[in-house]
UniProtKB/TrEMBL annotation:
Family indicated by similarity: Belongs to the HAD-like hydrolase superfamily. CbbY/CbbZ/Gph/YieH family.
EC number of the protein: 3.1.3.18
Organism of origin: Boseongicola aestuarii
Any one GO MF annotation of this record: phosphoglycolate phosphatase activity
Pathway named in the protein's UniProt entry: Organic acid metabolism; glycolate biosynthesis; glycolate from 2-phosphoglycolate: step 1/1
GO biological process terms, semicolon-separated: DNA repair
Source organism phylogeny: Bacteria, Pseudomonadati, Pseudomonadota, Alphaproteobacteria, Rhodobacterales
Annotated catalysed reactions: 2-phosphoglycolate + H2O = glycolate + phosphate
InterPro entries listed in its UniProt record: HAD-like_hydrolase_sf, HAD-like_sf, HAD-SF_hydro_IA, HAD_2, HAD_sf, PGP-like_dom2
GO CC field: cytosol
UniProt name for this protein: phosphoglycolate phosphatase
Length: 221
């Protein structure tokens, strides 16, 4: 069965503003104010909570802060979980594109490095969890992307076949994952890095979700 596997953050949904708000809540709780900017630091948000905390603490000109990152990370996750969909929205056309794939007989799934519980909550709140036959997060298995195991498990749980699947993502991690599995990789041109992500030489670039049907058909012919 042909399967399209999606990354979540920066691919299906723009989650950056809520992620940065969670990091800033940690800094504000320590009396530092908002150390991250929702626009200029957007790309860092998609590298995870610890990356955001490190960036913020680095702006305090402190020599070491890993202990602070470890201490604040659970607080970041708690704040984010409590405010997970304040600003987050699906990218234009994403929901309709997935619905078209399902109508055409494809299986669809999500493979993300977001903790599974948070990913499940977000998809439920956005009202689209039922469109995906499987969801594998960062902590679902013992390994995470770019290891091949989460992707393979995701496809199998969705009822698909790995050899007739593609990965749609937005980062180098997604490219490395696809290469590890041996499947085509499509990168979105509207994610955090924009069209410049083409530097990673994916098998295709997705400029709009309106084009996903055609790209999927070509790569999975």
């Amino acid at each position: 069965m042909k399967t399209v596997v999606f990354d979540l953050d920066g691919t299906l949904a723009d989650t950056s503003a809520d992620l940065i708000a969670a990091a800033n809540a940690c800094f504000e709780g320590l009396g530092h104010g908002a150390l991250l900017d929702p626009l200029t630091d957007q790309l860092t948000a998609f590298h995870g909570g610890r990356a955001m905390l490190r960036l913020g603490f680095s702006r305090l000109d402190r020599a070491t802060f890993e202990a602070d990152v470890d201490l604040q990370y659970p607080k970041l996750l708690k704040h984010y979980g409590d405010h997970i969909d304040v600003h987050t929205t699906l990218y234009p056309g994403a929901e309709a594109a997935v619905e078209r794939l399902l109508a055409a007989g494809y299986r669809t799934a999500i493979c993300t490095n977001k903790p599974e519980g948070l990913a499940e909550t977000l998809m439920q709140k956005l009202g689209v969890r039922g469109l995906f036959g499987a969801l594998v997060g960062a902590d679902t298995l013992a390994t995470r992307k770019p290891d091949a195991a989460p992707y393979i498990a995701c496809v199998e749980q969705a009822g698909g076949a790995v050899e007739t699947s593609i990965l749609v993502g937005d980062t180098e991690t997604d490219v490395k994952t696809a290469r590890a599995v041996g499947v085509p990789c499509v990168l979105v041109a509207f994610g955090p890095e924009g069209p410049g992500i083409a530097r990673l030489t994916p098998d295709a670039m997705l400029n709009s979700y309106d084009d996903l049907d055609m790209i999927s058909e070509v790569l999975l012919k």
